[in-house]
Design a protein that fits this description.
Chain lengths: 768, 768
């Protein structure tokens, strides 16, 4: 646990101690990114202690060979890996030719690292005594620009404190990097070119197999006491590496500094053969603007993100820090600029889960992006899946489905399945439903039905076909059943009639049938096109309808709840609270078979259905299911607490809701699961946002209206958030005294607050 | 399919054509072994075509790193691999310095390969025209001695037919071998020493990690027209290789020959540092006996095996060839000499399944060895597991069991689990029951109860403890249930209440309770020792009894059958005969999830229980279950047809019984599953033997008596088999006219034939 290690602060993540044992964790927490690229907070200078090096480029991946014991038919050929890309941050530093290496210093004092979330910068300062006895003060600041998204900039200052010294800066690019997460210990990059051009350095690299071309580049400036100086650089070019050496004679207490502009250009945005040229243009722009003005731009750009996305909390600085960290990381990971990109579970902070797209995007992230950005952004996320429809059909075909049925992949980079555990890849099919739920949710929130006739309907039909084919009729039950699935609770594998999956399947078919009629009525041209494309006829529709009408849902009369799956009641039911501590977390302490046959739930499963379809059930039903399932839930997925927090809030259990909120919002900062060194849990951060907005704020969209049922945790004075609803910006400020609404713009807006109509007048503070 | 490729012959496996595309299949089929070592039928001389090189030493294995996508708690660290060991058969042949290589000859005529099962030799002959135009006739014969089990011998003859020629023989040993089945493409052997000692060659090698030391050795003799000649050999020693070159000037039509004595000695039987010395002794003995007399010994030793184990079939040469091939391979694989060895599913014919021990031994192989060998052999097989008891306890502990509960591994070399698919390793726990069934079966057959107090009871208690702990009480069913298992039908994973597993679990507990009382009464000393060792008390016994009494068995009132598992009736039930051919075999044509949710059964599951516990059920019940399950069975395991053959015979359905028999007996010869190139299905060969003895012959042991209900397939004239029952040898000869019994020895024996008592008088042909 990191508790008390990260200093509480409203706008910054701060550590004030150098602890080599925590370097890897801090590298995750202090990560920076701009949606297009990002990196772990590795040190610029040489560091010989344990470190997890990572610098990533959105969309650049490698299809690592699948690794299994016994091959099963249908396995994907590869597991997509996000790639550690060439190192552009490196600046080796020598003081009188003694290398600066924090792992080897005689002492390190006043170490401080700060991730300034308000301005989007990472800074570090310390005083170190080198093995040669020279004490230096170091200050380093860097950022990846969200204005020029191929550019990063670093300012690295060294001040000898106890004697004059010659400071040597060796900025470098290094293409000989490897991945931490690699199945076969192969190298993933090939260096094509290393070039020097009047103190600019370039490396052009190519990923093996996928053939992505990436240009990494740099140019540096040297300063003495903050004044630019001209120093002769000597360069050194290796097979995969280029570096320059700049020497600065520095009197005691004088400050030598280097500014390094660097970054990536790739063939996703440029022609392969023009990468060096493109990199040169980025450097031209960077050097002409200069470091300070780039930094100013960065601050302004982040201010404008915060203007819309910020949530304020007063009276609970850790909660404030937590939510801002979540919002910051989400924006570092995905800004909605590029519909080829998506939100990897670790963003740019690590390699686990391959960095690929999961159902997390549809189930957890879309609400955040819908409410805090232009609605085009959410539409881009939907379009990402639309663009993958053909591959989803091929994936289904590989598993024996036909007639244009689609199964979206569990994990993907380019639409192809790239996850290789059979119980997940082949069986965790509920993901297919969240693709449709996201469309429904988007239309409900934005009111933009046009997406459906234009794109969504094709996806809906392909998914409905899948559910129809994936069900079979049980003579025994006289119902349709769905056998052999894994639900959201991955602590069950290959179960029959997972309630959530069956419910979602039925809903997908029903919603598709309803939508087909709507499109038929209102969008004849699109209707004709889609019917032509899909060859759908009334006979097939009738068969779908039959399946939806006769879908089986396991239910316990005794407990009055839907059962997570068939046979759930055969388990030995012991609430989590009665489980001895030594057994937790069960995913570390128990063998897999023991986990599977236990009653313990990894993350919301039946309750995930109650979250998606809250309006299908009464509050009593919710309460009954919550009281049955939550006590059996170990919350060993980062996606678990947020759903429970929202539902606890609905049930008026604010203490419990708050507990879950804290757990979700500070999961990484406090390192609950002792794994933050692998990277941060990016997708669940959107769930944290939902915990406040949908949980405490009680925000819903009902009948094309925003509605709120605001509550506030006891120890908070106030909190506020802003949402963009159909291009109307509403700021909601909640305190124990009541809730105030502020509507931007020029038109009034009717909303519901605690089931009462309220009209918001533009630019007026309205109290509910 | 190989049909018509292997020539029908009563005593030999013969191929009469050189077909490079079939070389790998034939390498499997023509394998030779002696229980201690064995090898695929690779050519002695250079062969540049596709080949699967394999030479194996019983008990010498390598713990290859486990290969999985996502690590799950409890996975074994390694997957044991049988190791391709240094090549001792190699003799490169040059004719006027042109290498003999069947893949590169201008023509190959009169190719013939014969595995003489009666004598235990492999021979090969052909005429080949070499690229240099010289036509040679080649005859090669080799065997691995079952008398001197560290020794193999080869005679390789070359006759130039169309001109005089110089024949060069280069016999060699090669330690630089690799495995076909290897997870990480690493080398598994390290060469420690290569030594030459007056025309003897030695290589001492060590396996990495496991550190087995193996000495490979050779010595050769040269003959011209079958007369020994002295030729100067030149030797060549490499890092992992030693070879000698012998040149023989040969006139047209004269025959040059080499005899090579070679083989392995290992530190399983000798001191590490004395391997070369031990090898020298083997060579001393071999050369003093000479090739012809070694060959004679081999023939005599096989004759004595056949004397006891042979089954004759008259009127169906393919059936005769099939059963002898099965009996021959079983004896090549395991002769019962060494209780550290066991019967790998591929024997010495391939590497698949790692060459390790599976439950096949207990469920399928023990009856064969009990009936065709001294009863010590079966006792050795039981002792193998007794010796692994501690490791089975550790394995169970790793999975969360306690108090001395044991879970025998799914796959093992040394008692440790070495299989790494969770659905098998963790869940296919019925294997634990077959350990106990084998003890029961051994005592039933041999009458040797002494094994139980001495060794068996400890195993029985540890296994009963496992079943007790692995069950849990279902409030819903008011019964004990066993959740999350994989039954013998591996086309179901992680199911609840697999009937076979539950039944076996209950039986293991009942049998253990009953046996404890017997030991208490009759073997007080052992009783006290075992109770002391296991710390077993009445309280624990009462809890076991409760579980056994209240065990749940899924049952369908509608169909009147036990259900394979909970929820089986939810499946879409379509008999295999109605499945289009394009879907077969489903394990190649369908994705894993589709297989799992289908109703198709890989091998006997419920029916395996009816096989083990035939006497617990009526014939009507058997018929009902057979008629329900067999039509859903795809028999995609080699272990499937035999059980069904026996049961069809019990039901008087001889046509079907015969069909299954042919399928099991010629599975490899006819290459039904197009996979024989990977090796032969050794363990299922014992099932073939059972099909005749227990199926057609209807042999059982009831109340300490042998009983028979002989039947005969319509197209057979007669068949006969012999069994050793409690040191009494009974030969049974069945024809359409009736059955004759012949008892060896000096005491009479009462048996049952078709439910009637019959007294066999020694050395008299008695007709029933």
């Amino acid at each position: 646990m990191n508790q008390d290690y990260i200093k509480p602060d409203e706008w910054s993540i701060i550590e004030e101690e150098f602890d080599a044992g925590r370097v890897k964790s801090s590298e995750s927490l202090f990560s920076i990114g701009n949606g297009a690229m990002g990196q772990r907070a590795n040190f610029e200078e040489q560091y010989s202690g344990p470190s997890f090096q990572g610098s990533y480029i959105g969309g650049v991946y490698y299809p690592d060979k699948t690794k299994v014991g016994w091959w099963k038919n249908g396995y994907p050929e590869y597991f997509a890996k996000v790639l550690n890309a060439p190192n552009w941050i490196g600046i080796n530093v020598f003081v009188n030719e003694e290398p600066l290496d924090l792992f080897n210093c005689k002492s390190v004092k006043n170490f401080r690292r700060e991730l300034n979330m308000k301005e989007g910068t990472l800074s570090r300062s310390f005083e170190a005594e080198l093995p040669n006895g020279i004490v230096v003060e170091v200050k380093a600041l860097r950022f990846v620009s969200i204005v020029e998204d191929e550019l990063g900039a670093i300012k690295f200052e060294v001040t000898p404190l106890n004697q004059d010294a010659e400071i040597r800066f060796d900025p470098y690019l290094d293409g000989s990097i490897t991945n931490t997460d690699a199945n076969w210990e192969e190298r993933f990059w090939e260096t094509l070119e290393v070039q020097e051009d009047s103190e600019r350095g370039y490396i052009v690299s190519k990923t093996l197999k996928t053939g992505f071309h990436v240009g990494t580049f740099m140019q540096s400036e040297i300063l003495l006491n903050n004044e630019k100086v001209t120093t002769e650089a000597t360069s050194s070019i290796g097979e995969d590496r280029i570096s320059f050496a700049y020497k600065v004679k520095t009197a005691k207490q004088e400050t030598a500094a280097i500014i390094k502009y660097a970054g990536y250009v790739s063939d996703m945005n440029h022609k392969k053969e023009q990468l060096i040229q493109a990199a040169g243009k980025v450097l031209d722009s960077a050097t002409s603007k200069g470091f300070e003005s780039l930094k100013k731009e960065q601050k302004e750009a982040w201010a404008s993100i915060w203007e819309m996305a910020d949530i304020t909390i007063s009276g609970d600085v850790k909660a404030q820090q937590g939510i801002r960290f979540n919002i910051f990381q989400l924006n570092q990971t995905y800004l909605g600029e590029d519909d080829r990109l998506n939100i990897g579970p670790k963003g740019f902070t690590g390699e686990k889960y391959g960095g690929s797209t999961y159902w997390d995007t549809e189930a957890y992230c879309i609400p955040f992006y819908m409410a805090t950005k232009d609605q085009k952004v959410a539409r881009k996320l939907l379009t990402y899946r639309y663009n993958h429809l053909q591959k989803a059909k091929e994936n289904a075909e590989k598993l024996g489905f036909s007639n244009g049925a689609a199964l979206y992949p569990m994990v993907t980079m380019n639409g192809e399945e790239s996850h290789n555990e059979w119980e997940i890849t082949f069986e965790e099919i509920h993901r297919n439903g969240s693709m449709i739920f996201a469309i429904y949710n988007y239309v409900r929130y934005t009111g933009d039905f046009s997406y459906i006739p234009e794109k969504g309907l094709e996806v809906m039909i392909a998914v409905a076909r899948f559910w129809y084919q994936r069900s079979n009729f049980s003579k025994d039950k006289n119902k349709y059943v769905i056998l052999g699935v894994t639900g959201p609770n991955e602590y069950e594998n290959n179960v029959n009639n997972n309630w959530y999956t069956n419910y979602l399947a039925k809903w997908c078919i029903d919603y598709c049938l309803e939508t087909i009629n709507k499109v038929k009525d209102g969008h004849q041209e699109d209707y004709a096109r889609v019917m032509g494309l899909t060859d759908l006829n009334d006979g097939e529709l009738a068969k779908w309808r039959e399946v939806a009408e006769k879908m089986y849902f396991p239910y316990s009369e005794e407990h009055g709840v839907y059962l997570q799956q068939d046979g759930f009641l055969d388990k030995e039911i012991i609430p989590v609270k009665d489980l001895e501590k030594k057994h937790r977390p069960i995913n570390q302490k128990w063998s897999w078979d023991r986990i599977l046959r236990s009653c313990y739930i990894k993350q919301a499963d039946v309750l995930q259905g109650f979250y998606f379809f809250e309006d299908h059930f009464s509050k009593d039903q919710l309460e009954k299911h919550f009281d049955y399932y939550e006590p059996l839930t170990v919350h060993e997925s980062s996606l678990s607490p947020c759903v429970h927090s929202i539902q606890a809030a609905v049930l008026g259990r604010m203490e419990q809701a708050y507990e879950f909120y804290v757990r979700t919002s500070r999961l990484d900062l406090d390192d609950y699961n002792k794994e933050v060194e692998e990277g941060c849990h990016i997708t669940s951060m959107a769930g944290t946002w939902m915990s406040i907005v949908e949980g405490f704020g009680g925000m819903r969209v009902e009948n094309d209206q925003l509605s709120f049922k605001p509550q506030i945790p006891e120890n908070w004075n106030a909190y506020s958030f802003k949402v963009n609803f159909r291009d109307r910006i509403v700021k909601v400020s909640v305190s124990s005294k009541g809730t105030e609404f502020f509507l931007e713009g020029s038109e009034s807006l009717d909303i519901q607050v605690n089931n009462k109509e309220l009209t918001l007048v533009p630019n007026e503070q309205i109290t509910a």
